């Protein structure tokens, strides 16, 4: 990498940690990205479950170019009839369970969470919000208030009041959901906790308890949506329908897009007392919606959820017998490969970087590495990346 660019990156681009990856990207295609020197990396992160249809997917690139040439931003969200937005919301509604028919488009995951929390408070007239330990929902004040990792949160208090955290998968904890509760926000599969799957019947029990006390159930499908879990959405995989669902990441097909979805009746409460209950300038940007629409179309046409399940199973089968692997937690093509010790994880991250593998750990789990490549990854690429991973594991 040009030294000067690295220096400018550190000096002039706001930083999130003292140790960024510092890999310069020149091009990304399919399951790979490339540095200006031509070094190839297997992308086993996919921008954290964003690039489900592969990098530079021609179908998406074409849609972006076409829409950018037709029109980009024209007016704040919610006033004009913009066909990419309308067509995309309609397609999503066709593939989500009955009762979810209205999509409010925003720019990011955190913003989708903000909108969903506000909608639940507005619709129920209640204030208590319940979420889960080790949950991640975004980094804005509201999203941070419902996030599970105290060490990331404490420096920013005071945050939103009336938030209660429960233990995920703890059936006894469900009694804390009461008639005071506006909403329960849950990731159907906890991503940043290190891929924690719901216990048998847990999401259904959560649904039942929310219905009993009149609290709205909100699913955060920001990481699980659009084929990642082996179904188009985790709510379809587990057969539980929330009152509100949040999307982002793969929603935009590689462009920034977020959204929350509900019934027309619930969503309608944002339009009065007061009007403009939630507003956004760029939410549902036409180019982002055109990209997302093309990506979802591609996911459906190529049955990428089924491919995700096949490829995920293959990774699990090819890696689970390695002596350094303690456990593999998997949902579709979202895998946490557990090494049991953070020192080993830091070491393997270094080896991966040298060997041309991009992986990552999880925000609340620094003993496991992530495998969540584009859902378009071929069987040959899975096998090739496993060979490299196993070579690195051998060196631990
Ligand atoms: C489950 C989940 N919810 C919300 C978010 C926040 O999304 P964004 O970074 O777009 O604000 C993330 C991001 O990693 C996430 O994984």
Task: Write out key terms for the chains shown.
single chain, 396 residues, alpha/beta, Aspartate Aminotransferase, domain 1, Aspartate Aminotransferase, domain 2, 4-stranded mixed sheet, 14 helices, 37% helix, globular, binds pyridoxal-5'-phosphate
Q: What composes the largest sheet?
A: 7 strands, mixed
Oligomer: single chain
Q: At the fourth CATH level, what is the homologous superfamily of the largest domain? A: Type I PLP-dependent aspartate aminotransferase-like (Major domain)
Look at the structure and give the mean pLDDT: 97
How many helices? The count is: 14
The overall number of domains is: 2
CATH class category label of the largest domain:
Alpha Beta
Helix and strand sequence: HEEEHHHEHEHHEEHEHEEHHHEEHEEH
Residue windows where pLDDT falls under 50 for at least 5 positions: none
Shape: globular
Strand order of the largest sheet: 4-10-9-8-7-5-6
β-strand amount: 15-25%
Class inferred from helices and paired strands: alpha/beta
CATH topology of the largest domain: Aspartate Aminotransferase, domain 2
Bound molecules: pyridoxal-5'-phosphate
Taking Cα atoms only, what radius of gyration do you get, to the nearest Å?
21 Å
DSSP strand tally: 14
Q: Roughly how much helix do the residues carry, as a percent range?
A: 25-40%
Distance between the termini: 28 Å
- Tell me what the CATH architecture of the largest domain is: 3-Layer(aba) Sandwich
